[in-house]
Amino acid sequence: MLLQLNNIFKWVHSGGQRFFLLKDINLEVEEGEFISVMGPSGSGKSTLLNVIGMLDTFDEGEYNFLDESVHSLKEKHRSNLYKQYIGFVFQSYHLLDDLTVKENLEMPLIYKKIKGSERKAMVADMLDRFNIVGKKDLFPAQLSGGQQQLVGVARALIANPKLILADEPTGNLNSKQGEEIMELFKQLNSEGVTIIQVTHSEKNAEYGSRVINLLDGRMV
Predict the structure, then answer these.
(1) Which residue, among 167, 143, 207, 33, has the nearest Cα to 87 in the 3D structure?
(2) Which of 37, 123, 138, 201 gives 20 to 30 Å between its CA and that of 72?
(3) pLDDT digits 0-9 by tens, 99-155
(4) Using H for helix, E for strand and C for coil, what is the string for the chain?
(5) CA–CA distances in Å: residue 15 to residues 12, 18, 19
(6) Which distant-in-sequence residues (6+ apart) come within 8 Å of 197 by Cβ?
């Protein structure tokens, strides 16, 4: 078992009322699964992804990841855990503006304390794989939205994560680029990487082995 969410609730208070972002979520994910999370806007899809990715806390329930109780871990331990095992692909890229493409790709490897010469080789490999060798010394602002998205995907994959969390991974790509990313996910999944993607696209959802539907913070 890669991860398990038991009775997860997350809420915010507004005007003296409690609004639920996630309600009683129970989810088990085995290693090697490819899961698509679907649902209307505001149904809690991104919140769920952020909770799984340990970027967001929750108010009630238990979360176990590789036999670690995430809910009882200290912040630092938690952040080490996700840097070690999880790759994120966001629609809004989250690239570091003051770093070049090459340096952005290197960041996750530095976290993992991978040696310089090996880092260089891994970065070169990714630049090649995504056809962005010519962009390696540019800054994110100098790239088109589609190129930034590709760099974001490359950065998520470079450290060989066990789990990839993708929020609308093809959101800013043209259909050909989008298809290439989905095919790449499919290939990684066949190599044993677990993938959880949030998507509006039926076509992208079909790449997954199962679909989870959310409505008003609940699994339906």
Answers:
(1) 167
(2) 37
(3) 999 999 999 898 888 999 999 999 999 999 888 999 999 999 999 888 888 898 899
(4) CCEEEEEEEEEEEECCEEEEEEEEEEEEECCCCEEEEECCCCCCHHHHHHHHCCCCCCCEEEEEECCEEHHHCCHHHHHHHHHHHEEEECCCCCCCCCCCHHHHHHHHHHHCCCCHHHHHHHHHHHHHHCCCHHHCCCCHHHCCHHHHHHHHHHHHHCCCCCEEEEECCCCCCCHHHHHHHHHHHHHHHHCCCEEEEECCCHHHHCCCCEEEEEECCEEC
(5) 10, 8, 10
(6) 34, 35, 36, 37, 165, 166, 167, 169, 185, 204, 208
CATH no. of 3-219: 3.40.50.300
pTM over 0.85? The answer is yes
> First and final CA of the chain: distance in angstroms?
22
Domain boundaries, the chain: 3-219
Nearest to 56 by CA among 99, 94, 11: 11
170: number of CA atoms within 13 Å, CB side? Answer: 20
Other beta carbons within 10 angstroms of residue 134's beta carbon come to 9
Structure tokens at 77: 């331990």
Residue 219 has which token pair? 């699994």
